[in-house]
């Protein structure tokens, strides 16, 4: 009888890779270890993914999609901030994988749908285009990610965890209130450089000549 493809195989491979990451980071998993943890063979894993980087790419895109879906169900920026933190804390290992090396290729040139959604909501409140509020968005992102990682790495529980979440939400709202004032937000350091581009896929840059060609074919392959 002909063999039928297993529709659950790829999710099992990604789940196995995530478990291995949780135990010891990227170095903790090899293709053979992923195959064993997923209950399949190493050649079968290679049929789906070229190497470990391909698996990490798939994990990042999967997590970005799930985070974006969660944020899309909110109506206000405050709700989105709260949902972002909730998602990060409920999916701690996937969240850590998502942000490992996020400011460098290939992650830099991958889709950032949640970043763009939050930036659009900031623009709706402050006026102007989303790209005019990159620095505000970076500040908001820093607050959210800092709070999430402090709770995750610090193993915050109970009242401390709750207070940290609400302190982050309050800080974001205070930041946006300041940004809407007559002095604006960009009060220190250089202005946002034109060659620092975030959330624009392959056009993204970190302010130098970093290119985006590497891994584009992998991203295209895994995007819906």
Overview of the structural elements:
The protein has 224 residues and is mainly α. It has a domain at 76-222. The chain is 62% helix and 2% strand. It contains 10 helices and 2 strands; from the N terminus they run αααααααααββα. A two-stranded antiparallel ribbon has the order 1-2. α1 crosses α4, α4 runs antiparallel to α5 (77-90) and α5 packs antiparallel against α9. The longest helix is centred in the C-terminal third of the chain and has 22 residues, at 158-179. It is globular, with a radius of gyration of 19 Å. It starts with 8 loop residues before the first helix and ends with a helix. The model is unreliable at 210-216 (pLDDT under 50).
Distance between the termini: 32 Å
Biggest sheet statistics: 2 strands, antiparallel
What count of helical segments does DSSP give? 10
Assign a percent range to the helix content: 55-70%
Shape type: globular
Please compute the radius of gyration using only Cα atoms. Answer: 19 Å
Order of the strands making up the biggest sheet: 1-2
The total strand number stands at 2
Average pLDDT score: 89
Order of helices and strands: HHHHHHHHHEEH
Q: Unreliable stretches, pLDDT < 50, 5 or more residues?
A: 210-216
Structural class, by secondary structure, is: mainly alpha
In what range is the share of β-strand residues? under 5%
Give a quick rundown of the structure.
This protein has ten helices and two strands, in the order H-H-H-H-H-H-H-H-H-E-E-H. The chain has 224 residues and is mostly helical.
